[in-house]
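User: D-aminoacylase, Streptomyces clavuligerus:
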Amino acid sequence: MDLVIRSARVIDGGGGPSYRADVGVDGGRIAAIRREGEPALSGRRVLDAAGLALSPGFIDMHAHSDLALLRDPAHEAKAAQGVTLEVIGQDGLSYAPVDDRTLEEVRRSINGWNGGGPGDDSVDFDWRTVGEYLDRLDRGIAVNAAYLIPQGTVRMYAVGWEDRPATEAELTRMKQLVAEGLEQGAVGMSSGLTYTPGMYAKDAELTELCRVVAAYDGYYCPHHRSYGAGALQAYEEMVRLTREAGCALHLAHATMNFGVNKGRAGDLLALLDEALADGADISLDTYPYTPGSTTLAAVLPSWAAEGGPDALLARLADDDTAERIRHHLEEIGSDGCHGVPMEWETIEISGVSDPALGSYVGRTVEESAQDRGEAPWVTARRLLIADRLGSTILQHVGHEENVRKIMRHPVHTGGSDGILQGAKPHPRAYGTFPHYLGRYARELGVLSLEETVAHLTSRPAARLRLPDRGLIREGHRADLVLFDPETVAAGSTFEQPRALPTGIPHVLIDGRFVVEDGVRTDVLAGRSVRRVPAGGR
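Assistant: Predicted structure for D-aminoacylase:
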C-alpha cells in the first residue's frame, strides 16, 4: 500500500465508539482497516499514529472561499484546520452564472467578503457558467469544493437590482439558469434573503426555483430573512416554502441572535423537530462563536440598495436620503439588520478595502464616533462612502446558551462562515473546526468527541449525498485528519484571528499529504466535487 497509518485511535465519523486500528491507503482511497489484534498492514510508508486520533476530513458546510481557493494556493486557513471539503457559493451571492455586466456588479457587491473588486487583478475571471467555474477549480486547489448556485446572482442576471416581482419571462430565465448550474455539477442553491438583490424575491418565486432544485435532488441553503426580530417566522417561512416545493432544506448559520432571541434556541429546535417528525428533510450548520460577520453595507435597509452599488452610494451622499437611512437603522430597525434597531456599540470594523482607512479596524463604530466627537451614523456613513461599500464588520449580538443548544441537535453540521478578507477577520475563518474539538468537546463536554466528529464529517457528507466521503470505511476516499485529542485547539482569537490551530499534525486529501508534521505542503489535491443529479431533467 502507499501508506499505512499505524495504531491510530479511529474516530470513524459514524458517531460510535472509537477503536484502535491500522488504516491502509492506496490509490487515494482507504484500502484496508485492521483493528487491534488483527494482522498488521504493511506499506511503502508507515506513519506511527500512537496518541493521535484519525478521523475523516472535515466538511465546511458554509465557506466564503470562492476566490481564496484560486488566489491562495496554500489556503492554510482551512487546510490547517483539517478541512478537506468546503461548500461555497453561499448566501445567494457568488461568481457564476454571470454575464459580463453581472460579473462586474457581483464583484463590487461582495468585495468585502472575497476581495476581487474593481482594480483587483489577483484572479483572472475567465469563466461565466457554473461548469466553467468548476473547471477552473479542477486545475488544482488546496482543498475540495462543492458549489451552490447563488439565487441573488441569478436574480441580478435575469432581473437586475429592482425591487419588484419577476416577470414570467424573467422567472423562466432564472429557472433555466438554476437548472443549467445543477446539470453542470452544483449541489444546490443558496439565498441571501437579507442581501440585495436576492431579498427582493417573494416566496412564490423562491418556491418555483426550489422546485427546480428538487428535480435535481439538490438542496436549498437560505440565509433567511431575519436572525433577529423575525427569526422564528423566517425559519418557519423556509420550512413551509421548501416543503411546498418538495425540496431538501439546509439552514445556513442557524443562529438565534440579538437580545430579542436570548434563550430562544429551544423555540427553533421545536419547530424543526415538528417538521422532521412529519417527514421534512432538514439540516443546518453553525459556527461555535457568538459574534456574526458581514459587510457594513449589508445592515442598511434594502430600499437603499435598490439599483445596485452606485445607486446606494448616491443615496448615502444625499443628506436627506441618508437621514431616512439613519431613521430606518436606528429607530425602526432595517431589514438588513434583521428588524432590530441598530446598536452601534456591537458593530466592530474588521476590515477595509482602502488601507488608508485602517484606523477604523478593530474598533466599534461607536468608539470611532466618540473619538471624532460625532454621532455613530455620521461615522458609519463616512466610512461606507470612503471605502466604496467594501468594509467588513463583526456584529457582537449572539448568545452562548443558544450556540450550545443548537450544536447538540441531531441534524447539526459545522460551517465556518469564514470571511478571509480584512485586517481583523472573525477567528472562525481559521478556528471553527479545532474550536469544536478542543473547546466544545474536550473542555466543555457539550458533545462527545465521537459525536462532534460525526457532526463535522458524515452528516455533512450525507446532506451533500456523497457516498464515499465522511466516514472511515474501506473504499472511501482517503480524505483524512490526524489530530491530538488532548491538545487540538483553535489558535485564532479575536486579537490574533489568523493564528493557526494546534494539535493537527497531518491532513490528507485523496491520500496525499496537504499538511505534514504540522506544515503545509505544496500539494494541491483539491478539485470540484460535483454530484450527478438523480432524476434531473
